[in-house]
Amino acid sequence: MSSHNFFAGPAVLPEVVVKETAAACIDFTGKGIGIMEISHRSKEFDAVIKTAQADCLKILGLDAQEYAVLFLGGGASTQFMMIPQNFLKTKADYVLTGVWAEKAAKEAKLFGEVNVAATSKEANHNYIPKSWNFHPDSDYVHITTNNTIFGTEWKIDPDTANVPLVADMSSDFLAMRRDFSKYSLIYAGAQKNIGPSGVTLVVIKKEWLEKAGKSGMPTMLNYNTHVKEESLFNTPPTLPIFTVGRTFKWIESMGGLEAIEAHNIKKANTIYNVIDAHTDFYKGAVAEAIDRSLMNITWNLPTPELEEKFINEAKQQNMLGLKGHRSVGGIRASVYNACPMASVETLAKFMEDFYKNNK
Known about the structure:
The protein is an alpha/beta fold.
């Protein structure tokens, strides 16, 4: 019996990609050995990583002459530290829209001055700030485009004038069209939307890369090291990179970001419409509809007891991962790119039935 996967991460992957990865683990390129066993220096794996890098830039609409794609270890949390270590010379602007944005700012404070350009903390991060205080002499501006815990999402790419824009896109990378050329650095832990845990994708503007690094900093933490060696300075996470590469192919086969975005909007609205139809029972956690995430839909029921009942009854119908983050409680449905429409429709029907039986 198939399950409906609403986990926030590690999360649902396209079925075809999972099957391709499983097959590659047994026999990669007909050599009788798997992708996990082949040398990262081999021409076969070199083709995997180079194709993935090229496909990523193609989907983003970016030029390989201007941007580099890296596959690194350490998760997005390592990027919280690596970015300021490379680029924070005096001060940086951070917009705080959730737990991960706050953690990124905390790490940056170890390397220089952090200006909180805007925050939604006073409202428990239930909205995206619409105004901010960016400094024209800051080294960079940092935002977190999607807030997995609270269910908010940036729908615009903020104008930072000539200040480099950096974004943690871990949980909505390639979920919608953006003007990616506005960003000097994008990073994303793969396990939310493009692959399994174990690899972090970084897209970096080569012009800005010239300012990276400081004297005496560790080799492994310098972006120039990894750009120069094309993510092969040390042994990279080969299996996750293969899966991410296949996910890029899947996105292209689906019609690219335009089609992916349209599908994601349709899926999200299927659930938001149920919430909006029964506001006396389902309480959306996000203050304004414009700030609602396409990826992580969050809501509450009238009592914690009803929430627990909702989660348990959903689980009995093979709908998994609906419990809200431990820090906020409630219900959370994560409907990433690979989440099928059938799963979303199953959840929406369950929500309607649960409302009728428990109102």
